Amino acid sequence: MPRRYDKLVELAGEFSNYTAKYLQQIGAAFDELNTRLEQAGLRDEVHLWQPAWNLEREMDIVSHVAPEGAERVRFLGCYYGLQYLRMNIQAIEALRAGVVPGASREEVYREFLTSLGSSYTQLVVTFMRKVLDILLAGAELPPFVICGVGTMTDQDDVDIAVVVEEESGREPLNSVLSKLSSIMLRYATRFHFYLSERVSPESFATSLEEYRTYAETYPGDYIIISELLNAEPLFGDRALFERLQREITERYYVDSDADPVYHEGFVRGALGDVVALATRDFDADRIVPKEEALRIIKALVQIKRSLHGLREPNIWHNLQRLADIEPWNAEKNDLLERGLVFFEVLRYLYQLLVVQDEVVILDTPVMTENLSRVAAAMGYRRRGAVGSEDSLLVHYYDSVDRVRAVARDLAREVEENLRTGSVFLNLASAEPRPPGELLKQTLRLIRFLARVAFWDDVFELLLASDKELLRALVADFNSLPPAKRERRVNELVGLVKRNAELFIKLLVLLGENREDVDAHELFEALARAFLREFGTFYNPAREGAHLFAVQPTLVHRYLAEIDYDAAKEFMDLTSREVTIPSLQPAAASLRELCRLRYYGSAYLRRYLGTTLQKYADCLYLLDDMEGLAEKAQGILAESALVPTPAAKKELLGDYYDLELLRIGLMTLRGATIEETNAAYTEFSDDYLNYLFDACREELAEEYGRWVTSFDVMALYAAGGHAREWAFNDDYDLLVLIDSDDEKLQELGGAVISAMSAEISKRGMMPHFRLIEHFGSYVIPVRQLEEFFRRGEATDFIEKSQLLESRLVIGTSTFEEEAYERIIKPFVFDRAEDYIADMKTEMASRQRAVGEVFLPNNVKECVGGLRDIVMTMLICKARFGIRDPVTSHILEGIGRVYPQAGLELRSLYNSMCFLKNLRDVYRLAVCLDDNLDFEHADVVGEILGFDGAAAGEQGRQVREAFDRTTAKVAAEIESILAKVT
């Protein structure tokens, strides 16, 4: 082996492992090839170490000196490998020499791609043709043409389509193509028969009739059509290629004589791909140039080709043509071209130097080093602490953002084109039709274009002019006899396996408008049919996860429209394990969303709806409590940064809704009552503090002054919020002020009034019990003292509210002052009177159970939550304990009255059970304290009760409720006997 080979090995050493096969083929055949050329006196005619002058001639010579077919292929493979490696080595050297400081990278990249593409195409095509000559060897074959249908600079594979005139008689050609494919894989670049895989999967060659049938069956299959539009003949019958263009691809141009539905189907398919790709999020640990930019650029150019009748497949040529055709888009098209150049070079270099893969992994040291090699070849240099790979990535993300911004602008132009020229506009015409004909024509179009992704303008058309077209379609359906209705439903449900997303969009459209257009029967029929069809998928869970991954909001809207039984069925269908790693997060979030629809009450779903209306990305976090918490904290932090009080209040409302949703999910997932109460109290206290600030900032502008010091004003949580209970149905608040300044009192009242308005928007009724006596949100401490001095008959209620209140906004100094002036003199120092009033009230209320209150009212029943709280308050008053009615109260009572410790601990545990039961019932059934045990199976399941039979878990919940309340009643009687 000559020394030049060692040099070639050294230079090719920086290439990826894929190129090792070329060195292997060279090493196995070079000496023999060289000897044969020398013996034939042709060594000087063939360039083994330099670029070929004439590939065609030199390959003929290499083939000529081999004795037979197999040896000829081996010699050609050796020659191909030499030319391939030399071509890429020189291309890289030229690129590195060109991207010097001061040079225009885009111009260097463009020249590089143009030169490389031409050289590589010529090399691959010439090799393929010479091998085919050897394989054919005069064999009788039907007319055929081999077309290149992809980007010829893609060195990972060569996309080809083989066209024959007829299906019959193509077996010999398939045999030849199979051998050719095997030889290409071994010696050169593998073939990818994407078109035949889709159109004629049992054959390498596809007939014109098969292409025609596929085109008429799937007019919106944009990827297949794009490859056909890109087709260029490489070898074979040119007349057959022209027939392919005339009979198949011509129909996709706007200026053709074909039915415009073909052109529109292609545009809709491509546009849907552009919109989806242009809004996709980046992955944190990888970049994918093909998916994140190149497919967008190429799809846009294909759309423009179709719209302007550009038959030339060369993308560079078409970008130049578009500059003349659309001068108003000159800058945008220039950005697309520059993006195309950058991403193609990056992709080519990564596959040549690192690995033949579309995905560039970023989160490993080895891959960082590899990317730095690519960056250096592209002309990026280290600048101080910033590595070349960092500069490349910054440029990459900037370029993707620019391409996507351009794509969104150009997509809007195409959308407007569809709105004014769509075939669907004919449906909205006033032309009279026989009954059922409008529906029939619409279904034909929908089925024909089933695979396309873009339908926004069609849905707008259905809802335009007071939903006139939608009304007409539904009326057509309702006018049909039952048998024809079923037939139309069956025709439409065929969409599920061709475009499930479109079917669900139609279903949601009907569901959300069923009242207005009388679509109840149609919606229910389609909803049932969808579940039947969806259940026939091999793995519905995987299909559901994929659908959720691309359209989470749509899936949420679907679940919101279907009934309870349908939600249960969909949940069961999508509950199977999904083994594809990329879909597992979506599958987990979908399962959680289904649980919410099945288990979640209207109360909880309200917060789900308001959250997702603004933060659809939270759909991806329904199985991630930490992720939801981070999202909520981000919203809270943002509320402190926005410039206006109105904006602050809006964000604080979002924060409240998301946090309540998160804690509701925690509860349904089995979190303890201590965990949910602590989380709820923390966020609700934060909400009140931030809301107070926003409201006083807003009112300060109107009043010209602040509530400047918390020393004179304090806000207390009362009721359930004071006890740190989650999921209350009202917001008990108490506001005190220690000042006779009437303007300050007025300002404080205005702030609390503004807070109340915001709290009401959260679905919570703010409750200020003392307002009944004082006529103001803000109660001066002096007036409260006077109120208690008068000693009204029911003032034990107000004393209870004060006794269990918990400071949320204010200072410890104010709290201590309020204790000394109110709690100590009027409650603790008069504990006997307070306790007597409380015991009388408890007995009176217990007598009312069965008349005023239902026996299964978890709050008001004998031994219910009200009895427990009142007992705790009696203990607080009896022993002068200031701890709130939470777990801390046990410590306080235990310090002064250890004899009651065990009974109080048992009572507190019972309170936790009843409170947890109440929470789960509110989140899973409805916001009501009256427990309906006939509908409590779901509650029992969440609480961990066993039982498969209907009603069994609900029965167990009732038994546990009855046992607990009876036990509580006995314990309260015992405790009160001891402490009073």
Q: How many helical stretches?
A: 42
Contiguous low-pLDDT stretches (5 residues minimum) are none
Oligomer: single chain
Q: How many structural domains are formed by the residues?
A: 6
Mean pLDDT: 89
As a percent range, the share of strand residues is 5-15%
Query: Helix fraction?
Result: 55-70%
Main beta-sheet annotation: 5 strands, mixed
Given helix and strand content, the structural type is: mainly alpha
What is the first-to-last residue Cα distance? 107 Å
Overall radius of gyration: 38 Å
Describe this structure in words.
The chain has six domains: 1-138, no CATH class; 141-252, Beta Polymerase, domain 2 (2-Layer Sandwich), CATH 3.30.460; 261-418, Four Helix Bundle (Hemerythrin (Met), subunit A) (Up-down Bundle); 425-622; 700-826, 2-Layer Sandwich (Beta Polymerase, domain 2); 831-980, Nucleotidyltransferases  domain 2 (Four Helix Bundle (Hemerythrin (Met), subunit A)), CATH 1.20.120.330. Helices cover 67% and strands 5% of the residues. The strands form three sheets. Strands 1, 2, 3, 4 and 5 form a five-stranded mixed beta sheet that branches. Strands 8, 9, 10, 11 and 12 form a five-stranded mixed beta sheet that branches. The chain is elongated. The longest helix is centred in the middle third of the chain and has 34 residues, at 388-421. It is built from 42 helices and twelve strands. With 980 residues, the protein is mostly helical. Strand 2 (158-164), helix 6 (171-187) and strand 3 form a beta-alpha-beta unit.
